[in-house]
Amino acid sequence: MAPIIHTVNLRKVYAVGKERVIALNDVSISIENGEFCCIVGQSGSGKSTLLNQLAGLEKPTRGKVFIGSHEISAMTEDELAKFRQAHLGFIFQSYNLLPTMTAAENVALPLMFKGISRSQRLAMARKELKNMGLGGRAEHMPTEMSGGQQQRVGIARAFVSKPRVIFADEPTGNLDSITSKQVLYRMLQISKQMGTTFVMVTHEPELASCADRIITILDGKVQSDVVQDPATRERNREALFASLEGNMRIGGDSASGEVHQKTAAELASYAAPAAAAQQPEQPKP
Known about the structure:
By secondary structure, the protein is an alpha/beta fold. Helix content is about 35%, strand content about 25%. The longest helix is centred in the middle third of the chain and has 18 residues, at about 175-195.
């Protein structure tokens, strides 16, 4: 696999009053095409800052960020906006749903800029909501849904346009344990089926243990960058999904009552990484 993301001597310094805070200090990393990568570290370690740099949401003070062959750290704001729109998806801990739109309309938003008709956009949005276990909530307003349901709508919105890379900042932070595992399962499923690269910040070691790559940040530096042994990773996934055995709501929800029966081993196997031959090409403008 070829790197889809890499950084060179990345440095980010913030001015706080008269003080200078070094959030990232000469960080150089590579993430392979199709990998599921978790960034972990204590609060204030710099992991969310790193995610923002990788996604082009903030400019580095120094250093370079590449996605594919494109140096996004050198792009203008307009160029970055077009690149993100074409190739990237985002999931945040805060839901960021528009309160005047239904769940389906919120999910369909990224498709507006791709020349897709409204009816087709909404059909694609409803399908992704069903995949997230929210098929019965498509016409609900955000205020009519729980926090966990709103977050799953946000995740469906990131998935719907099938981006090359999805960046997720604490996507399960407001979810209960079972829903968190269901969401991770769906992410791994998308990674396998679409060859999508995921970069996820999490505080939860149990979720991080299912990743292909785990990058640990400490005081703005890379403390460790570990590619997990596949056998270990699969054991971790099987153990994590064991609590979902016989109760995995993928393709249904509590409103419709659809429940797919799967064993923990089946879940872990289904969420295994895609073969290298199935990996997509690097993004092109």
